[in-house]
Amino acid sequence: MCPTCQQRHANGGHLDQALVCYSCGNSGRTRWHNNVQHEVGAFINSVGHHSRLEPPGVDPNSGKRADGECNSLLRGGNSVYWDVNTYAVTTGTDADAREATFPGLAADKHEYAKTRKHAAAIFANRQGDEFVPLVVSDAGSWGPQAMAFFSRLARTTEAPARTLQYRLRRLAVVTAKGVHDIMHGGVRLSLRGGGAGPRPGQAPPGAVWEADDESDDDEGDDAMTSEQLRRAERELLEGVVRGDDDGVHDGVADGTQDDGGEGTGVGEMDQGPQMNVLA
């Protein structure tokens, strides 16, 4: 069952089709995209440049705008506009075979689509501005233009290699969490109302509600039982200290076992000569 729309069209026992299912809008893809967008903005700010998310569109008539703008990387006051695109490597179509034969073909395709959507308006608005499509797959791999942009940002720091490695790891975590939430977040269905159920290791919501609706009679029984156990333990310890013989010779206290009147000879302390069983 598809965890996104709850329809039975998922790819067998796999949940990868939840990444490309938009029957219910696929809010998980939107969250994944937005989290990547904010992490890229944090990357730009962390290396000393200025990032602005959701800048006004350069062409108001087109209704298009990029996900972010960096207006301090280029000289002369020009800006680098960037836009994030998330995609699934496995789509269940013929494109999967082409991607397996030519790895990276899907990234090039999505980069081209983003560039075609935004670049013309950006270049026409002001000469010298740039546009970079930031394409990331569900496996965490980035397109070549995104990697070139990230490397360009890292080179403005004192430790380019370590900065790039650290930021790529952060971006990988964002993608891994986003993909996990899409594939498994909707599977946790509650029997009440069809909402999201408990995460692994958590009690079902129904169990909490039932516990709230119950009276406190069980708590009183538990407390009384515990008190009885403590009293019995205290009496037993007091009897041992006083040297009482009541019940001490029953069982194994004196090294014997109660077998209904017939001793086994195992562990008995007052025994006569034993018969040699080998004789």
The H-and-E topology, N to C, reads as HEEEHHEHHHH
Mean pLDDT: 73
Over the alpha carbons, how many angstroms does the gyration radius reach?
A: 35 Å
Number of strands: 4
The major sheet is characterized as: 4 strands, mixed
In terms of structural class, how would the helical and strand content be classed? alpha+beta
Helix content: 40-55%
Shape category: elongated
Return residue spans where pLDDT drops below 50 for at least 5 consecutive residues.
10-14, 187-223, 246-279
Range of strand content: 5-15%
Q: How are the strands ordered across the major sheet? A: 1-2-3-4
How many domains? 2
Number of helices: 7
End-to-end Cα distance, whole Å, is 75 Å
Which SSEs are present, and which pair or pack?
Blueprint: H1 27-46, E1 51-53, E2 68-70, E3 80-87, H2 95-101, H3 105-125, E4 130-137, H4 144-154, H5 160-184, H6 205-213, H7 217-242
Parallel strand pairs: 3-4
Antiparallel strand pairs: 1-2, 2-3
Helix pairs in contact: 1-5, 4-5
